Amino acid sequence: MADGDRLAGLPAIEEFPSVIAERVRFSDTDRQGHVNNLQFGAFLEAGRAHVLFGEGDLSTPGCFFVIARTSIEFVGELTWPGEVHVANRIDRIGTSSIRFAQALFQNARCAATSESVMVQVNVDSREAAPLSDRARASLSALARPGS
Where is coiled-coil annotated (predicted)? Predict the structure, then answer.
């Protein structure tokens, strides 16, 4: 696949209803002068945390969220100094799980896309626990139409 073909399929930031800005620190960079790939995961985590806890904790009392699966496709660089825009959308709400679609943008260019599944777990049983109606309503506001 040619680079142009790969870039043509990238999402636009407008496809995501929740976007936060994170500051790139010098310590996020590696010897090549760009943000280390591991830091991409930290930026994505900040986006998920904002969705789940930014407007109030969406977990049911006695429960917490765990990440069950995540994937990142690196499609560009992030550099210092600057900001990264973490774009978040909910692609599926299950009984106890949430599938996030995310992307990282810098200077209006997509640098990575990601899909993650979070599961709500009961503190005592360590088993999946149903999402509350309040969580479903909040997450639905960030959902892709038809999800």
Answer: none
DSSP assignment, residue 76?
Answer: S
Which of 36, 11, 12 is closest to 25 using CA atoms? 36
Domains of the chain: 3-140 (3.10.129.10)
Q: CA-CA distance, 26 to 35, in Å (whole number)?
A: 8
Please determine, for residue 94, whether its predicted confidence score (pLDDT) is greater than 70: yes
What's the confidence (pLDDT) of residue 147? 54
pTM of the model: 0.91
Q: How many Cβ atoms are within 10 Å of 43's Cβ, its own excluded?
A: 22
Both tokens assigned to 44: 């994505």
Confidence class for position 114, pLDDT limits 50, 70, 90 = very high
